[in-house]
């Protein structure tokens, strides 16, 4: 199995870059790519949209474009819940608040699906200055800012959280037409105001009380924006 790693040049810490570029296995190929994480995702999504090409070359993605990544993250939420709950013999089961630092919203989508199938968790979204998810949850404003802002949490420096499509699909009652129309508008105009009936369903998903430029150090506090 050959592993291809795309590294956004200048958008990772030195330690992260060394972790990826010092692997000496012959089947691991690391490429530095110009552009930010959003720009790096575009060709990946284009490749995987070509079903014939994917089948011919037996390709698989390990980021949350791949549904299996979200399934694994769902298991993380269940494991965390069992670790935080002293007993499962109580009824109803206690509610656990889970703070989710997020960029592309894969872990958020996984938590929301876990919630939908019965896990008693409340999700708190933690973002940095790239705050599209915060604005979506607070105001129904799913729109791009002028530019991606670089922060110390580079993995969260994302303006196109593609897993929000999965969240919108769940919020719409699994209505593919509604979700498709929203995402088509976003692709065309880079801005969507969520319909009131969808935005009002965001109550289980709470925004972090302040925006932070690093991953939160502890729940529920954050380091202030520098």
From TrEMBL:
One example GO MF annotation: pyridoxal phosphate binding
GO biological process: 2-oxobutyrate biosynthetic process; serine family amino acid catabolic process
PANTHER family: THREONINE SYNTHASE FAMILY MEMBER (PTHR42690), THREONINE SYNTHASE-LIKE 2 (PTHR42690:SF1)
Protein name, as recorded: Threonine synthase like 2
Organism: Mandrillus leucophaeus
Encoding gene (name): THNSL2
């Amino acid at each position: 199995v050959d592993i291809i790693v795309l590294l956004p040049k200048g958008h990772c810490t030195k330690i992260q870059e060394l972790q990826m570029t010092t692997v000496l296995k012959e089947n691991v190929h690391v490429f530095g790519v110009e552009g930010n994480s959003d720009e790096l995702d575009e060709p990946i999504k284009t490749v995987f949209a070509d079903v014939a090409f994917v089948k011919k070359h037996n390709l698989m993605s390990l980021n949350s474009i791949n549904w299996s990544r979200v399934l694994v993250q769902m298991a993380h939420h269940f494991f965390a819940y069992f670790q935080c709950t002293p007993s499962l013999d109580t009824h109803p089961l206690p509610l656990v608040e889970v703070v989710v630092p997020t960029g592309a919203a894969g872990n958020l989508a996984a938590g929301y699906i876990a919630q939908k199938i019965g896990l008693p968790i409340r999700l708190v979204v933690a973002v940095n200055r790239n705050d599209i998810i915060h604005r979506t949850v607070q105001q129904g404003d799913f729109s791009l800012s002028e530019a991606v802002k670089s922060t110390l949490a580079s993995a969260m420096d994302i303006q196109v959280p593609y897993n929000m499509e999965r969240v919108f699909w769940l919020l719409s009652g699994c209505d593919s037409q509604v979700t498709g129309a929203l995402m088509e508008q976003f692709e065309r105009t880079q801005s969507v105001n969520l319909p009131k009936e969808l935005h009002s369903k965001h109550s289980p998903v709470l925004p972090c009380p302040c925006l932070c430029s690093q991953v939160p150090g502890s729940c529920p506090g954050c380091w202030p924006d520098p």
